[in-house]
Design brief:
- The protein has a two-stranded antiparallel sheet.
- The protein has one domain.
- It starts with a strand and ends in a 13-residue tail after the last helix.
- The chain has 6 helices and 2 strands, in the order βααβαααα.
- With 158 residues, the protein is mainly α.
- The radius of gyration is 19 Å and the shape is globular.
- The longest helix is centred in the last third of the chain and has 25 residues.
- InterPro entries: DNA_S_mod_dnd_assoc_4.
- It comes from Lyngbya aestuarii BL J.
- This is Dnd system-associated protein 4.
């Protein structure tokens, strides 16, 4: 049987709901799939992969892969799996084992990313502002870690 749903950890279900637009509230994300993709990429960034212990059965229930495909996120799921396994076989659309492995890897990185996000958003009133600050600090971290290179004019003096 094909693994056709992405599951959310039970202990992070309320947090995922709080990050989305619902019931008159405005969250930073439109759908649960948006939250999961952002969290998975954050999990990759922080090298945080956490297996799911218990799975949310209610809201948010497991999310159909069709939702991810319709939003163009299937490529992100495949890329994360390939980066983790480093075997092109993981990308096979015809191998159900590969599909299950891709989904499991994605879920675990999303779970790790949700943990990072939850820590970053602890005590925040507005998650959008906190996410913006997180993104800005990640950008600044990239520019600080890259060594500043001077433009060397001596190569033109021949």
């Amino acid at each position: 049987m094909a693994f056709n749903r992405i599951r959310v950890a039970k202990d992070k279900a309320d947090f995922v709901k709080a990050l989305t637009e619902s019931e008159g509230k405005t969250g930073p994300f439109q759908t649960y799939a948006d939250v999961m993709v952002f969290a998975a990429t954050l999990g990759i960034r922080h090298k945080k992969r956490i297996p799911l212990e218990a799975v949310s059965k209610r809201e948010p229930s497991p999310i159909s892969l069709e939702v991810f495909i319709s939003r163009g996120y299937d490529l992100v799921i495949k890329l994360i799996a390939f980066l983790e396994i480093n075997d092109p076989q993981i990308l096979s659309p015809f191998d159900t084992d590969s599909e299950e492995k891709r989904a499991a890897i994605f879920e675990e990185y999303a779970n790790g990313g949700l943990e990072v996000l939850r820590e970053e958003c602890r005590g925040a009133v507005d998650y959008s502002d906190r996410l913006l600050l997180l993104l800005m600090s990640e950008r600044d971290r990239d520019t600080q870690s890259a060594p500043a290179q001077e433009f060397d004019l001596t190569r033109f003096l021949n």
